[in-house]
């Protein structure tokens, strides 16, 4: 089974990055850096949520109900639809909860995108992540326990890519650690993704 992050990187190719950049009014390099930070953030959060039996079952049910992977059949068409950001905002509310603002700040600082553009980008990417996960579930016949086990491995890969920024997903919501974590994460991600910061 190919990695979820690998599947996502194949789907979000240069043409897709350019399309997202045009929609956000940002440059492609900053958008690519933001995507490279945002995807493991979303996947890492999903892995944390699915680490409990209840969380894994809720995710399994959501995938079976709403995310069969068909979004990947015409990704550029889906991204140009206003519906995707509405759907993505709802997904992020469930997946990130109170960590959404620190995550948006983190991706913004690393990429150089403003926070509003970053929030919109995360909302565009969340349904894509769920679609890729739903496709993986459908093609491999995964149940809630399988999803939990798979996401545990993917979460470790995501955390490794994020470096210190992964700590944003473990904050208790008071935000007191955010600036220190962002400083660590921006240095690590800057080297990894060639950020201008």
Topology:
Blueprint: H1 4-11, H2 14-24, H3 28-49, H4 53-66, H5 75-79, H6 83-95, H7 100-111, H8 115-140, H9 144-162, H10 178-193
Helix pairs in contact: 2-3, 3-7, 3-8, 3-9, 4-9, 6-8, 7-8, 7-10
Tags for this model:
mainly alpha
Quick recap of the structure?
This protein has one domain.
Structure description:
The protein has 197 residues and is an all-alpha fold. The chain has one domain. The chain has helices at 4-11, 14-24, 28-49, 53-66, 75-79, 83-95, 100-111, 115-140, 144-162, 178-193. It is globular and about 40 Å long. The termini are far apart. Residues 173-178 have low confidence and may be disordered.
Give the helix proportion (percent range): over 70%
* Dominant shape: globular
Instruction: Enumerate the spans where pLDDT stays under 50 for 5 or more consecutive residues.
Output: 173-178
Number of helices: 10
SS strand fraction: under 5%
- Into how many domains do the coordinates divide? 1
Number of strands: 0
> What is the averaged pLDDT score?
85
Strand-and-helix sequence, N→C? Answer: HHHHHHHHHH
Cα(first) to Cα(last) distance is 35 Å
Largest beta-sheet characterization: none
Radius of gyration: 15 Å
The helix-and-strand class reads mainly alpha
């Amino acid at each position: 089974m190919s990695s979820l992050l690998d599947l996502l990187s194949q789907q979000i190719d240069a043409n897709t990055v350019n399309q997202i950049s045009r929609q956000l009014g940002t440059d492609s390099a900053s958008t690519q850096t933001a995507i490279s930070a945002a995807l493991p953030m979303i996947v890492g959060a999903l892995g944390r949520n699915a680490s409990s039996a209840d969380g894994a079952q809720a995710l399994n049910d959501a995938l079976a109900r709403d995310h069969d992977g068909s979004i990947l059949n015409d990704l550029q068409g889906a991204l140009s639809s206003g519906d995707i950001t509405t759907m993505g905002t709802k997904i992020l509310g469930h997946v990130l909860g109170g960590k959404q603002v620190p995550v948006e700040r983190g991706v913004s600082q690393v990429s150089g995108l403003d926070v509003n553009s970053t929030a919109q980008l995360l909302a565009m990417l969340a349904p894509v992540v769920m679609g890729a996960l739903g496709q993986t579930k459908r093609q491999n016949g995964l149940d809630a326990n399988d999803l939990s086990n798979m996401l545990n491995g993917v979460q470790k890969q995501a955390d490794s890519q994020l470096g210190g920024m992964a700590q944003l997903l473990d904050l208790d919501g008071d935000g007191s650690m955010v600036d220190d974590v962002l400083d660590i994460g921006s240095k690590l991600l800057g080297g990894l993704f060639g950020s201008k910061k």
